[in-house]
């Protein structure tokens, strides 16, 4: 097939290393077929899928079933996280070496599902359980919760940000860095959301990599008034001081990956009054358009974006392609048009939940083609062929 790319830019196949595809669990909000279709429409060639499904991916049998379910169902390539629990710590060394596991994921702060590992003793045992870089949802609300009111006055959803405040985030990250130093285990801190953590992590670059979310680079606390429950996520969207710190860290190389934390919920769950509002926002279909818009606005360069969403995740997670520590070496390409402007709409979203917190956002720069192993799987908003997505291979898994 001849592909005309005149006037366009070719990027290495872009990866979203942080998505929750809810499969198995809740087909009314998302499945592997719908979430990976959203991914290729949005210009992604691979996603790494989180384990807090129902039931969660916490043992070899569920991991095998999940991997088997990708064949003929996934439109893009998929890496699989395995969740740590207080009862599977002894099995983690074996689980992290199973094929297609991008990392062990630890929820050290509470979130959707119940994969919480929050006490110091269990966290240390998890750190000592294996060798590969281990991924953390880092928040430590437990030490603070007792002395914090639930903020039942004022703008209800803004209370979410006050409740999961800077101290909660910083405490979590300081605790994990102390453990990483003591155990020598490399860590990856997911969705770092505060200026304080980014500053703190600067002294741990030898042992800790980190991710910043598209939302924390794009939205500030004005979103609570505008979007209500559709602005609620963990860690929360914060004020502009943190957004500026995140951009400074992206620009000076202290951020390794950018992810969406695509976490669909039903409209009913998002519209529940705080504090019962479900936390999590959709993003897998919109992260590339929005990052391209940030490129157009001069906030980062296209090569830096290729780093953050291509080579960054490959390096942090050890993603392999034909035995090389890289992606895009066998024809994974995202073709983008930096002159194209287009407005994101709810009607474009293919996740069954059917909403995006970015409806109405006009983007300059848009993904025009998604090419996986030389096959054009998306061209100008049309998904082509059959689902050819494969499980991603990783180094250090013994079977990469
Ligand atoms: O907002 C969030 N939603 N944060 C998480 O850590 C989990 C996610 C979800 O699965 O809903
Ligand atoms: Zn998280
Ligand atoms: Zn997440």
Indicate the topology:
Layout: E1 9-12, E2 14-19, H1 32-41, E3 44-49, H2 60-68, E4 77-83, H3 92-95, E5 101-107, H4 120-127, E6 134-137, H5 142-145, H6 158-163, H7 166-183, E7 187-189, H8 195-201, E8 208-213, H9 214-218, H10 222-227, H11 240-251, E9 257-259, H12 267-271, H13 287-296, H14 302-317, E10 319-320, E11 333-343, E12 362-372, E13 375-379, E14 382-383, E15 393-394
Parallel strand pairs: 2-3, 3-4, 4-5, 5-6, 6-7, 7-8, 8-9
Antiparallel strand pairs: 1-11, 10-15, 11-12, 12-13, 13-14
Average pLDDT value?
Answer: 95
Question: What is the H-and-E element order?
Answer: EEHEHEHEHEHHHEHEHHHEHHHEEEEEE
**Proportion of β residues?**
15-25%
Bound molecules: (4S)-2,6-dioxohexahydropyrimidine-4-carboxylic acid, zinc ion
Number of strands: 15
If you compute it from the alpha carbons, what radius of gyration comes out, rounded to the nearest whole angstrom?
19 Å
Principal-axes shape call: globular
The helicity comes to 25-40%
């Amino acid at each position: 097939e001849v592909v005309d790319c005149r006037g366009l830019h070719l990027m290495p196949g872009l990866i979203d290393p942080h998505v929750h595809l809810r499969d198995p669990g809740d087909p009314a909000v998302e499945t592997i077929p719908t979430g990976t279709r959203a991914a290729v429409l949005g210009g992604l060639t691979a996603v790494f899928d989180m384990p807090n499904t129902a039931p969660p991916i916490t043992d070899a049998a569920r991991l095998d079933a999940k991997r088997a379910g990708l064949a003929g169902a996934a439109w893009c390539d998929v890496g699989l996280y395995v969740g740590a629990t207080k009862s599977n710590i002894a099995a983690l060394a074996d689980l992290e070496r199973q094929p297609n596991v991008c990392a062990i994921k630890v929820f050290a702060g509470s979130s959707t599902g119940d994969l919480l590992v929050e006490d110091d003793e269990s966290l240390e045992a998890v750190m000592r359980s294996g060798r590969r870089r281990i991924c953390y949802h880092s928040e430590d609300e437990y030490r603070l919760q007792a002395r914090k009111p639930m903020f039942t006055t004022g703008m209800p959803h803004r209370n979410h940000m006050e409740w999961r405040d800077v101290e909660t985030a910083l405490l979590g990250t300081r605790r994990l860095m102390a453990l990483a130093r003591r155990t020598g285990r490399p860590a990856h801190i997911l969705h770092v959301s505060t200026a304080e953590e980014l500053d703190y992590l600067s002294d741990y670059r030898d042992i800790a990599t980190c991710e910043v979310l598209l939302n924390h680079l794009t939205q500030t606390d004005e979103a609570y008034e505008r979007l209500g429950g559709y602005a609620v996520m963990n860690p929360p969207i914060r004020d502009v001081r943190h957004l500026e710190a995140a951009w400074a860290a992206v620009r000076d190389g202290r951020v390794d990956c950018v992810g969406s934390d695509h976490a669909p919920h039903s409209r009913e769950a998002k519209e529940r009054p705080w504090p019962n509002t479900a936390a999590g926002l959709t993003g897998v279909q919109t992260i590339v358009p929005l990052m391209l818009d940030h490129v157009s606005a001069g906030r980062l360069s296209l090569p830096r974006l290729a780093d953050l969403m291509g080579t960054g995740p490959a390096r942090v997670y050890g993603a392999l392609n034909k035995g090389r520590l890289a992606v895009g070496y066998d024809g994974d390409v995202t073709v983008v048009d930096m002159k194209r402007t287009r407005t994101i709409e709810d009607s474009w979203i293919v996740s069954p939940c059917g909403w995006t917190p970015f409806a109405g956002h006009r983007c300059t720069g848009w993904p025009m083609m998604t090419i996986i192993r030389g096959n054009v799987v998306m061209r100008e908003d049309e998904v082509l062929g059959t689902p050819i997505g494969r499980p991603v291979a990783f180094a250090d898994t013994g079977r990469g």
